[in-house]
């Protein structure tokens, strides 16, 4: 695990080297833009970009002005979607302040903690589950680093329960991962494994292939720490199989690397060389893939591990070739000597010492120690390297130098022992706090049982008194018993009938929902869309319907006559006739489909003046011609194209019996499914329920004008956020008013 991190350090250093000039150019450009900016919104955007690009030590220079601008803008927006967006930017600025104090003032800074709490308050207010998740994880890490492991555990459990309550599965998965990590840190392997396996099951339910694979890698690393090498290898191989299926060659190579390292550590643990061939084979596989991917940093890091395996196999010349090639790469690639160089020098020093070539061993040992003290902290590798230096100087007769290395070795060993004792004390305190909490919970449980016992005894006494009184007044009630029995029977019958009616309506709801377009069908054919479907009653007159026929995909948003049960019956009839027209009669064009549905409605319901039917918009996405056609009955869909709002035309006749029985019109939407040709637009289909809702401070209708305005304000948001903004605006407008009609709104980005 530590060696994998060291390889990653090479990549980080490389990325820093390549991007420094580009980053400085971005910063200079943003600062010039800030000087020219006049509006608060422009300054807010630039400060946010500066926070993203600057060094952590400069975070406050840009985050604090960003917070001031947010506070100023929030005074202009008391509520609504724009206020939430400003609050989110303020939360991000608080996070930048947290990283400044956490990195520059120490991991236990009170200011860092306060900014995290402020950030969490905002995300809780705007109900941003992703923000809540990330902030609570950072807060738990803060307490963990400060030694308060029990507080860290409390926050993780609270976050996990919150994500379950909000049904945010990715949030649940993240908290499960962090809980497993915490339990592993305190040595509770049983709980750690339980959470890791629970996380695997959850990722499979979410069906996120990448996260499942990553979780398997983490589980494999954990099994290696427990020296359960067979189970670790099984996890790595399963992860590699999944990465290979999605052509993720980078992670396939890392899995080979992890398997090679596992065989190597298995060899170290068993004092046997039987697994070295397998270790070498997998490292070589990893290196070959990194060469294919042109990932030279990873290739060289793997080369270092191959050299170490050759050392274990006593193939010193091959090991030397690997180490020298690795060092040559580091010296040519990095402007300054880094920890990566030190790793190569350390490997060569050990090799030459084993060959009794003490002069060369000392040369590389001295180079290694100089870099390690300059660039790396105190760790076990440095302690081992000081011990090696002591042995080398002792063999050369440099006793003064060897004594110095021995003293350094003892100092480092004592420092690491102190850290180990501190960590063990933290673990013991955690277990003590956990046990105390269990005792508190048990005490509360016992108190609750005692309370229940008192309530039970009081009930028995009360019941006895009531029974005695009942016996005394029994004779006086005898005359009324028959009448009372009749009344109770009638009441029971009424309640049964009411329940039967409700059960029937609930069953009707299940039937109606089977005819609606499934989420899977919509997602397959409309990758970027949202749906807001909110019936007034249990069942709905509004409905949305879709089907795919050959290379054409049809989508309808309809408002049947009435709502509740009558509307639901009409929606079942309308959906049935739509399906019949396309899938049985093979009618292709939207206007002809609506003509057929109207004909069937009139024939089924009758033409005696009853104007039952529906208002409807029917879209056809033709993948062959890349055209979108539609026909609309008393509907006017809205199209956003090139930042312009276009209200599309529709026929002023319903699908059903009416005074005018003209044929419906086939219309084209002026946009192609070939995005590279026409750009992209958004089509909104909707019934009248959203705009007709009464509410606001004066109890008026929301109006179609306001509906267009909110569509204009959200059109650039991701589709799931558009649905959230529409829903929040509706709830805010409606307040305590009753919903007046069914609501159905669908947005499709094409």
User: Which stretches are low in confidence, meaning pLDDT under 50 for 5 or more residues running?
Assistant: 1-20
Q: In one word, what is the shape?
A: globular
User: What's the total helix number?
Assistant: 25
Q: Any idea what the CATH superfamily of the domain at 516-749 is called?
A: PPM-type phosphatase domain
Helical amount among residues, as a percent range?
over 70%
Mean pLDDT across the residues is 82
Walk me through the topology:
Blueprint: H1 2-36, H2 40-53, H3 59-74, H4 81-104, H5 110-125, H6 129-145, H7 149-165, H8 169-185, H9 189-206, H10 209-225, H11 229-245, H12 249-270, H13 276-292, H14 296-312, H15 316-333, H16 339-354, H17 358-375, H18 380-396, H19 399-515, H20 519-525, E1 529-534, E2 542-549, E3 552-560, H21 564-584, H22 590-605, E4 613-622, E5 627-633, E6 638-641, E7 644-647, E8 655-656, E9 667-668, H23 675-678, E10 681-686, E11 694-695, E12 700-701, H24 704-714, H25 719-734, E13 743-749
Antiparallel strand pairs: 1-13, 2-3, 3-4, 4-5, 4-8, 5-9, 6-7, 6-10, 10-13, 11-12
Helix pairs in contact: 1-2, 1-14, 2-3, 3-4, 4-5, 5-6, 6-7, 6-8, 7-8, 8-9, 9-10, 10-11, 11-12, 12-13, 13-14, 14-15, 14-16, 15-16, 16-17, 17-18, 18-19, 19-21, 21-22
